[in-house]
Inverse folding.
């Protein structure tokens, strides 16, 4: 594909890494420019990542962001099945105070702070997110055709292992088996949450979310689960509060209220405002027409 070759040259000339490979691949250690292998000395990444990259679905453009706020664009080419992976890139500069905040949030030990500082100095920084995503959207349209592909924004979602493997890496360093127990417990909670959402039991879903330890649910939710969780919280907040739609969107982790409204309408066939007004009218109607207690 001459256009893809040109696109790869364009990315690389701007310091943006872009790799093309076919699975199985000898080594995927450099997908993140060696962060997990070189700095954290995490083994067996290639085997696990091969397993998860096989789940990349055709005609889907994945915009992924990991715990270190490094972003990637990943997709599968038609016919050849070749995987295209671009990144890591960051959309903010991690230096000084901002870097210290991130390392504290991730519980990175002080002894490797200098290595992390050097790592971020070598990761490509892009000031305009739209340049990165817009370039790939144009490429996707050329590859698959207009409106013939899906753009998936995720905190790794289906590729959770790559992000999970070090999210728990420093969790309990002196008690590795306890870390394994925590992972198993977290999956147990998530399965119960999926069951509650699938059966329409929003009360049970919210109960599970509020009762889960804070380091369980926030650190890993696949796309479907996270969307269903936000859907439950959204409906409950719309019904029980007078919060502006913009504030509710932010609570669900979507700062763009217009994008939030589009997602909500896709699920309910109504905008959040229309849904709230409809439910309010219905509740008033039910209240006025309720039979009196005898």
């Amino acid at each position: 594909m001459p256009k893809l070759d040109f696109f790869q040259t364009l990315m690389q000339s701007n310091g943006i890494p872009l790799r093309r490979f076919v699975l199985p691949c000898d080594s995927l250690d450099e997908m993140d420019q060696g962060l997990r292998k070189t700095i954290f000395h995490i083994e067996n990444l290639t085997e696990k990542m091969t397993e998860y990259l096989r789940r990349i679905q055709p005609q889907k453009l994945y915009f992924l962001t990991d715990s270190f706020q490094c972003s990637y664009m990943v997709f599968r080419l038609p016919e050849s099945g070749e995987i295209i992976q671009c990144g890591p890139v960051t959309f903010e500069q991690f230096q000084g105070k901002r870097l210290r905040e991130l390392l504290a949030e991730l519980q990175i030990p002080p002894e490797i702070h200098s290595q992390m500082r050097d790592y971020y100095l070598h990761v490509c920084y892009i000031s305009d997110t739209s340049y990165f995503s817009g370039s790939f959207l144009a490429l996707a349209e050329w590859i698959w055709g207009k409106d013939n592909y899906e753009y998936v924004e995720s905190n790794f979602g289906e590729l959770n292992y790559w992000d999970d493997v070090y999210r728990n890496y420093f969790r309990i360093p002196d008690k590795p088996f306890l870390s394994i127990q925590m992972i198993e417990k977290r999956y147990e909670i998530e399965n119960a949450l999926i069951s509650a959402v699938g059966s329409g039991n929003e009360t049970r879903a919210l109960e599970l979310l509020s009762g889960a330890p804070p380091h369980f649910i926030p650190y890993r939710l696949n796309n479907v689960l996270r969307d269903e969780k936000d859907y439950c919280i959204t409906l409950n907040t719309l019904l029980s509060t007078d919060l502006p739609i913009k504030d509710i969107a932010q609570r669900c982790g979507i700062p763009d209220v217009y994008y939030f409204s589009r997602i909500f309408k896709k699920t309910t066939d109504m905008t959040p405002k229309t849904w709230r007004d409809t439910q309010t009218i219905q509740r008033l109607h039910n209240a006025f027409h309720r039979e009196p207690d005898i």
About this structure: Residues 176-198 form the longest helix (23 residues).
